[in-house]
Amino acid sequence: MRVTHIVGARPNFMKAAPVIRALAGKAGRQTLVHTGQHYDSNMSEVFLEQLGMPAPDVNLGVGSGSHAQQTAEIMSRLEPLLLDHRPDILIVYGDVNSTLAAALVGAKLLIPVVHVEAGLRSFDRAMPEEINRLLTDQIAEPLFTPSRDADENLLREGIAPRKIRLVGNVMIDTLVRLLPESDRHLPADLPEKYVLVTLHRPANVDEPGFLLRWLRAFGEVSRRIAVLFPMHPRTRRCVLALGPGVVPNGTFRLLDPLPYLSFLALERRAALVVTDSGGIQEETTFLGIPCLTVRENTERPVTVALGTNTLVGREPSRMLEETEKILAGRAKQGEIPPLWDGHAAGRIAAALA
Ligand code: UD1
After folding, report:
1. Could you say which of 7, 54, 55, 146 is the most buried, measured as most Cβ atoms within 10 Å of its Cβ?
2. Low-confidence ranges of the chain (pLDDT < 70)
3. What is the third-level CATH fold of 2-178+340-352?
């Protein structure tokens, strides 16, 4: 069996790494294609290295652009490659533009497309990722899901039960494997107690007035406890555009995007994480760290129903209230969702075999 894996953006790498490992020796030949959606070393190369992934066989080098440009560019660069390689299956991960672009190319070349992390739905079609998720799941099979809610979403959309396999969360496989190692990557000069913040969704950072409100709110938190904010390049660009004097001083610290292991080391020691990322909602649930998600919805409801995640919406005052509660020792307790056990990729490999 010849397998081609497609990765492109930061959250893809932690999902593909365990599947590649689990298929080693089982699949005849594995090819790794990087679309180049993310290209800065600290958004891509460092992750491949730390996750112990093979160097990509091909990098399509598409870079940034509008959604249409980026998606189209990935498609037109990937098609000749797949025509040449003709893999037996194409595996796509998550919900980024690279996921949908590659799935479309594979499906039209009649190459079976496998989707890892299928079925998640925020029911918010203003999110580009929701469009990517919905469309990819229509043309991929099997659909490997991380949680029961994802199966239910797919069934509701009329997808045949035989296409759906609940395997658990592959990103947690990576976390379980690398958690012990992360200790050695703890950034220096850490405050003893801190809140860890990440923010990069267009809905939170692209509108200047809104971003400014978030920065002020984090400034307020930093008067009570240190705030560490590793910043996505998109967010940094938006913050710079606001002009000088907007970044709170004192115990508020802006950092560059962090490598996987350093971020994990920070995450597991945080008093609280405030985020709009999908993956971080899952990681904090696994680690038992309180998480406030500054979005109106989540495609990962199991992290709220079972885990430590609380949706606070895009209202800074609500985030401040919940932060106060958590710092006062009234954090919500959670449990780890079923099958988030470090063996999801093994189940995928067994199913594919
Ligand atoms: C993408 C994903 C998002 C995911 C996020 C994780 C889509 C639609 N979105 O969002 O789901 O949560 O990755 O990081 O696929 N940039 C750089 N260097 C890079 C990459 C990006 O400077 O290596 C800057 C560019 O200015 C670019 C902007 O970030 O225009 C946005 O990058 P893009 O890949 O379009 O989307 P993300 O916001 O990263």
Report:
1. 7
2. none
3. Rossmann fold (3.40.50)
| Residue 318 backbone dihedrals phi, psi, to 5 degrees | -65, -40
Closest alpha carbon to 131 in 160, 172, 103, 152: 103
Q: What is the C-alpha radius of gyration for the chain, rounded to an integer number of angstroms?
A: 20
pTM over 0.85: yes
**Tens of pLDDT, residues 128-140:** 999 999 999 999 9
pLDDT tens, position by position, 19-50: 999 999 887 899 999 999 999 999 999 999 99
What is the CATH number that goes with domain 188-257+270-327? 3.40.50.2000
Which residues surround ligand 1 with Cβ inside 6 Å?
Answer: 9-11, 37-40, 43, 64, 96-97, 128-129, 200, 232-234, 237
From first CA to last CA, the distance across the chain in angstroms is 9
Q: For residue 178, report the distance from its CA to the centre of ligand 1, in Å.
A: 24
